[in-house]
Design a protein that fits this description.
The protein has 14 helices and 12 strands. Helix 4 (76-89) links the parallel strand 4 and strand 5 (95-98). It folds into 3 domains: 7-177, Rossmann fold; 182-282, Orthogonal Bundle (6-phosphogluconate dehydrogenase C-terminal fold), CATH 1.10.3660; 296-365, Alpha-Beta Plaits, CATH 3.30.70. It has helices at 15-26, 39-47, 60-64, 76-89, 104-113, 157-169, 179-208, 213-216, 221-226, 233-242, 244-263, 269-282, 308-317, 346-358; strands at residues 7-11, 32-36, 53-55, 69-72, 95-98, 119-125, 146-151, 173-176, 296-301, 325-328, 339-343, 362-365. The termini are far apart. The strands form 2 sheets. It has an 8-stranded mixed sheet with strand order 3-2-1-4-5-6-7-8, sandwiched between helices. The protein has a 4-stranded antiparallel sheet with strand order 10-11-9-12, with helices on one face. It has 366 residues and is of the alpha/beta class.
Length: 366
Amino acid sequence: MRMEFKKICVVGTGLIGASLILSFKRKGIGTLIRGVDRADVLEKALSSGLVDEAFEPAEAAQVFKDSDLILLAVTIEQILEYLPLVAECAAPGTVVTDVGSTKARIVALSRQLFGNGRHFIGGHPMAGSEKSGIDAADPYLFENCFYILTPLPDTPNQVVETLASTLQLIGSKVLIMDEETHDRIAAAVSHLPQILAVCLVNFVEKYNREQPNYLKLAAGGFRDMTRIASSPFDLWQDICKTNSQNIIEHLDDLIHELVEFKEYFYGDELRHQFERAARTRLSIPKDTKGFLNPNYDISLVVEDKPGIIAAIATALASENINIRDIEVLKVRLLEGGTLRLSFETEQQRTQAVKLLSDKGFLARKI
């Protein structure tokens, strides 16, 4: 039994695949890392030193025959297309995993294909970025993120532990669960919020056609609740297709809850529901990345004068701190600031607060 991965093949060198490679290299994992992708992407992967060898999809079979770890970092549909070839070509002892956002269909197909010493372990890293592609690769993307593994029932514990320990080396918090549980949880805390954000934006847009002030006044909480509505459909098409049953079941449950909630306006239960939600939200861990990528926000009190936003952006850019989002807080409820700036990482937020405070601004985390 192989106890470490020396020859690693990553199919798909976009954001997730390339970030995994950088994470492996940062920790000295793998002596030979190969990438499988389109020719134009591979050219960049080779020239940047991301991969040691590069192969187009038509050449993938030869790489699969000589790999300790095969990692499928492509879309769900592409993962399903690759699995038969991987199962056919992989040598005994090879470990195969993926990064798909839903697991049931992938694991179901793998049950039919793998065996004879070839091991499939489903995977889903709870990490991402609003950027995409190889240029957005980040060697620290998986630090402090949950990484779900869904091994087949007959996978030896030693094999699961080897993959889990490898992922822990790059900073991930590994959780092991069955694929059905994963998809039910994902439907509730990731997929359903996406659907609700889309519905809420479209709901308000409908009213805005007759009264344009709806969207004009939709700042603050509305923007926070609906940020994910901007996610491109291409990212969600496979998810909605492969987890539709769980999403619809949760949607039906929520519709029932909303119908019940209407009755709370006529009694004393409304306060209890608000307080219950507040307590529950406080129990959500703040120090890990989950299914939804968080915003790392600061509030910034500034003078109302021309050029102030440009000055702030320039100061942050000079230290390579990227602003993810910026909002003028015309209503200062709770935040107490004039501007709200959002960043992609806690490290960037901390750096931004220090930099702006040193320059005389009143900046704080929110």
